[in-house]
Amino acid sequence: MTAPIGLPALETTLARDLSLLGYPHRDWVPLRTHLGRPILDVLVVGAGQSGLSAAFALMREKVKNILVVDAKPEGKEGPWVDFARMVTLRTPKHVTGPDLGIPNLTFQAWYEAQHGAEGWTTLKLIPKELWAAYLGWYRRTLGLPVRNGVRVGALSWNAQAQAWEAPTTSASGNETLLARKVVLATGIDGAGRWEAPSVLQGVPKKFWSHTRDDIDFGALKGKKVGVLGAGASAFDNASVALEAGAEVALFFRREKLVDVNPYRWAEFTGFLKHHSDLDDARKWAFISHFVKMGQLPPADTLARARNHPGFSLHAASPWTAVETVGERVRVTTPKGTFDFDYLIVGTGFVTDLSLRPELENLKDSIALWSDRYTPPESQRFDDLGRHPFLGSSGEFLPKDPSSPWISSLFCYTFAGLPSLGFAGAFISGLKYSLPKLVDGITRQLYREDADHFLQTLKAYDAKEF
Ligand SMILES: Cc1cc2nc3c(=O)[nH]c(=O)nc-3n(C[C@H](O)[C@H](O)[C@H](O)COP(=O)(O)OP(=O)(O)OC[C@H]3O[C@@H](n4cnc5c(N)ncnc54)[C@H](O)[C@@H]3O)c2cc1C
C-alpha cells in the first residue's frame, strides 16, 4: 500500500503546475474607477462550486480584479453541510470540473493525497461533507478572493460608470460595489425560489416543511410523517425522518417511480459541450424531454428509505387537499385520506426571475424563452418558458434592444439548462460551461477596451535590442 503524500506535498506540486501553465503572465484588463470609486472587473455572487471555479477560471485568464461574495459563512456555502440530507453526492466520483483540467487540482488528487490510491479505489461515492471540504481546500489553496457574510441586493446599471451598482449588506455594514461584469452563481434555485405546492396554502407552517428548510428531525421520533415528491430530496428527507424513528409515507403523482436518469445519459461531450450550439427548436426538444422524463431518487437513496419497515410508497397519489384536524394534518389523495403529525414536501424550486431580489430592477428587461420561442403544444412547460433566453456564454439578453447592458450580467445557475444544457449548478457541466462563461466575459472586456489596447500597441516601444 502506497502511503498518501499529504496535502502539503500536493499543494507544492499544484503550485508548480500552475506556474508551468501560467502563460500568458501579463494582467491585461485596465483598471477603471468612477468618481474615485474602484470598479471591479467581475463580481461573482455565490461562493459555491460554480462561483469558486468561475473565479479560478477568470484568474487563469489573468482577470484578477475580481471579488466573490457569499451571504453564508465560510464553509457553509451551498447545500452540502446545510439542507442536503443525502449521504453522498449523486454524481459519480470521477467527474471532474472545478479543476479546469489540472490533474493535481481534482477531487481525486485531493482525496488520494490524504487516503492513498487504495483509499480512492474503495471510495464508492463522494460523501457530501467531503465535497464541501474539497471546495474549502480549493478556495484556500488557490487564494480565491472571497468575502462571506455579504448579501447582494437589487442590481442596477450605472450608464456613466458603464458598470453594475451592486448593493451589499453584511454584519460590518452596507456597501455598494461597482463591477463591469456580474456573474450570478447563486445556486440551483438562483433564478427562482424553492417552492411549496399551493395545496399547503392556509396550513400553519408548524405542520410542514420544505426539504430546503431546517427541520427538527429529533421531534419526529414516534410520529407519522407524510412526504410529497419522488425526487432525491424527498427520499433523503424521508430516510432521515425514518432514521429518527418516525413512520413515513411518501406520495407521488406518477403511476410508478421514474427509474431512468436523463442526467446520466447527458454525460458525454456532444451534449455537455454543444447543446448551446443547437437551434432553439432542438434545444427545447431536448430539455422538454428531460422534464418529461422526470426526477428520480438514486438507487442507494431509494434503498436507504425502503430498508425501513416504517416506510410506505404511494404512487398515483397527488395531494388534492390538506387540512388541519386538531393537532394533526389530513392529506387527501385520489386513493383516500391519511392523517399525519407532520408533512415534508420535496417539490423542488420554480424558475421565475421576478422572485429574485438581485433582479428586482431588471426582471422586465431580460429576455425569456417564452419571449423568443413558441414550442409545439406537446412540448409546452410553463416553468421552462420562464427560463432566461441566454446568450452562448450565459449572458442575459435584453428583451428589447434598448438595454444592451443587460448582457454584462451572466446567469450561471440551473436556469441555463434550456439555453446551454448543463451550465451553473451542475458538477457534471462545469468542465464545459466554465470555458464558455469565461470566454464571454474576456471577450466583452477586450472588445470594450479595444481602442485602449490599440493605443497601447501604438505606444509600445519596448526595445528588443
Ligand atoms: C440537496 C442537493 C443535492 C445535490 N446533489 C448534487 C449532486 O450530487 N451532483 C450534482 O452535480 N449536483 C447536485 N446538486 C445540484 C448542484 O450541484 C448543487 O445545487 C450545487 O450546490 C450548485 O453549486 P452552485 O455553486 O451553483 O450553487 P450553491 O452551492 O448553492 O452556491 C450558491 C451560493 O450563492 C449564495 N448566494 C445566493 N444568493 C446570494 C446573494 N444574493 N448574495 C450573496 N450570496 C448569495 C448562497 O449563499 C450559496 O452559498 C444538488 C443540489 C441539492 C440542493
What can you see in these coordinates?
The chain is of the alpha/beta class and 465 residues long. It has 2 domains: 290 residues, FAD/NAD(P)-binding domain; 116 residues, FAD/NAD(P)-binding domain. It is built from 14 helices and 19 strands. Strands 1, 2, 3, 4, 5, 6, 7, 8 and 19 form a 9-stranded mixed β-sheet that branches. Strands 10-17-11-12-13 form a 5-stranded parallel β-sheet, with helices on one face. α5 links the parallel β11 and β12. The N and C termini lie far apart (57 Å). The mean pLDDT is 97. Flavin-adenine dinucleotide binds next to α2, β3 and β5.
Helix amount:
25-40%
Mean pLDDT: 97
Alpha carbon gap, first and last residue: 57 Å
CATH-wise, what's the superfamily of the largest domain? FAD/NAD(P)-binding domain
- Can you identify the CATH class of the largest domain? Alpha Beta
Largest sheet: 9 strands, mixed
Which descriptor suits the 3D outline? globular
Give me the count of strands. Answer: 19
Give the CATH architecture of the largest domain.
Answer: 3-Layer(bba) Sandwich
Low-confidence stretches: none
Structural class: alpha/beta
- What is the domain tally? 2
Oligomer: single chain
- Indicate the proportion of strand residues: 15-25%
In the CATH hierarchy, the third-tier topology of the largest domain is known as FAD/NAD(P)-binding domain
Listed once per kind, the bound small molecules are: flavin-adenine dinucleotide
Helix tally equals 14
Keywords:
465 residues; alpha/beta; binds flavin-adenine dinucleotide; FAD/NAD(P)-binding domain; five-stranded parallel sheet; globular; 2 domains; single chain; nine-stranded mixed sheet; 31% helix
